From TrEMBL:
InterPro entries: ACT-like_dom_sf, ACT_dom, Chor_mutase/pphenate_deHydtase, Chorismate_II_sf, CM_dom_sf, CM_II_prokaryot, G/b/e-P-prot_chorismate_mutase, Preph_deHydtase. Transmembrane segments: none annotated. SUPFAM superfamilies: ACT-like, Chorismate mutase II, Periplasmic binding protein-like II. The record marks 261 as: Essential for prephenate dehydratase activity. This is Bifunctional chorismate mutase/prephenate dehydratase. Its EC number is 4.2.1.51, 5.4.99.5. It comes from the Bacteria.
Amino acid sequence: MTDDKLKGLRTKIDKLDRDILELISDRARCAQEVARVKQNEDAAAVFYRPEREAQVLRRVMDRNDGPLDDEEMARLFREIMSACLALEEPVRVAFLGPEGTFTQQAAMKHFGHSAVSVPMAAIDEVFREVTAGAVRYGVVPVENSTEGVISHTLDSFMDSSLKICGEVVLRIHQHLLVSENTRRDHITRIYSHAQSLAQCRKWLDAHWPMAERVAVSSNAEAAKRIKGEWNSAAIAGDMAADIYGLEKISEKIEDQPDNSTRFLIIGHQDVPSSGADKTSIVVSMRNQPGALHSILEVFHVHDVDLTRVETRPSRSGIWNYVFFIDFEGHTDDPVIQKVLEKLGSRVNDLRVLGSYPKGVL
């Protein structure tokens, strides 16, 4: 009786697999036809539409009844969309490398594994590659929920005309990794990025108080280093462990269980409204009494939700400051247009960095 039931279920699964295969192939053919239509209308057509993909993924999650959770279902659809987009035009994406960083993981989460990802050694190099047109988009970290803002990314916007086209919020899980050469009872040095060491400070104090903590350029660099040392370990994520063939001897060692990092997608295009968007701006003004209040009052009066405000020294003169501000809404919204108009009359300079779909965990 059990064998008959299993045989019936497997027959049903085989039929479902054939149906899924046919539907994915139909979707891929539609993507190819979209490419032909766009190219006939405009030889320089843009194939990747951030707002369109955000809308599709939101619908997938809204309609999902399980048993797979929303994030897993969205990941599956992201890969289908990525493969279909690659038939139209493979997307080239620069990220803060080397391979195995959380930034690469964020790039894969946003663009899927069919995108061509190109590692860069520094954040300003990611900006430079996108500006030069060597890649279509770049992915850079901007803030961590535990350690705060990444100043280098904000400063890079001051010298760049690039736009923010999207954001990715990535749950960050840190692991203590060793190589096949590591003598686990003689670990005296632990490598990682400075932010990751800070995110695991309490755990390290409790479990490895005598080990030297060495900050390197990235978690992936830490993973690479321990391959040639017998007395060291690294703190890094799943991707670095897989790429460099390392073993996790302690998992999820971050001090805050909800530790997450926000990444920005940078490019040249303006992104239309997706229906659930954020806008980022940078404004500059002299450091004088009431300066910040004058800015924030505009958002309060129009009931616009601020999600982040950061201050950075201006490069235009001593005691001048710039404010990086993120808020809910899109520049196509009439209320946001009023906010920007009123702000423009109160500050020395205002630049819209971009309106883009909100990222989700």
